[in-house]
Design brief:
Blueprint lengths: L5 E5 L6 H12 L21 H13 L1 E8 L10 H10 L4 E5 L13 H4 L3 E5 L2 H20 L5 E3 L2 H6 L3
Parallel strand pairs: 1-2, 2-3, 3-4, 4-5
Protein name: Molecular chaperone Tir
Pfam families: ThsB_TIR
Organism: Oliverpabstia intestinalis
């Protein structure tokens, strides 16, 4: 069994890839404590067929501890890979963090894919401090909420954002 310590980031690669690269830059910046072990560092998928891509993505999921979905303007319309990745995360019961690229701090029903709207997930704005906070705190809360049978969209209070200087 693989050691599951990675963060799997799903996004609209055609429109929102630069946000993912910004997250990687946060990780490398000496002035921030933001860090994550990126599941996308595990393998490079050379064969571009859908079957091969999904096989490679499943290998990444086997090492994943947390699923992060970057939600942009077009994300809810993506079915081939993003919807499949969400389904995989839900099937594997991974803690899900939904990151709104438009700055919204709660579930954005206009942009969030329907498949995850009613699922147990924390919805945050795109910012290193709140994302780091969610990566550190959501998995434990998620497990407790699951044991209690809770579902649905969660979000952090304005007070939490204030404590983080946001």
């Amino acid at each position: 069994m693989a050691y599951r310590n990675k963060v799997y980031v799903s996004m609209d690669a055609d429109h929102d890839l630069h946000y993912y690269y910004l997250m990687k830059a946060w990780r490398q910046n000496d002035n921030t404590s933001f860090n994550f072990y990126d599941a996308h560092d595990i393998n490079t998928i050379l064969d571009k067929s859908e079957e091969s891509i999904k096989r490679g993505l499943q290998e990444r999921f086997r090492n994943t501890k947390i699923f992060v979905l970057l939600v942009g303007e077009h994300t809810r319309y993506l079915y081939k890979y993003v919807r499949w990745e969400i389904q995989e995360a839900l099937k594997r019961e991974l803690p899900c963090i939904v990151v709104n690229l438009n700055g919204k701090r709660s579930m954005d029903s206009q942009r969030c894919p329907a498949i995850i709207r009613d699922e147990l997930a924390i919805h945050v704005s795109f910012n290193a401090k709140i994302l780091e906070y969610a990566l550190e705190n959501w998995p434990d809360f998620n497990q407790k909420a699951k044991r209690e049978g809770k579902t649905g969209a969660y979000y952090y209070s304005d007070e939490t954002y204030k404590k983080l200087g946001l």
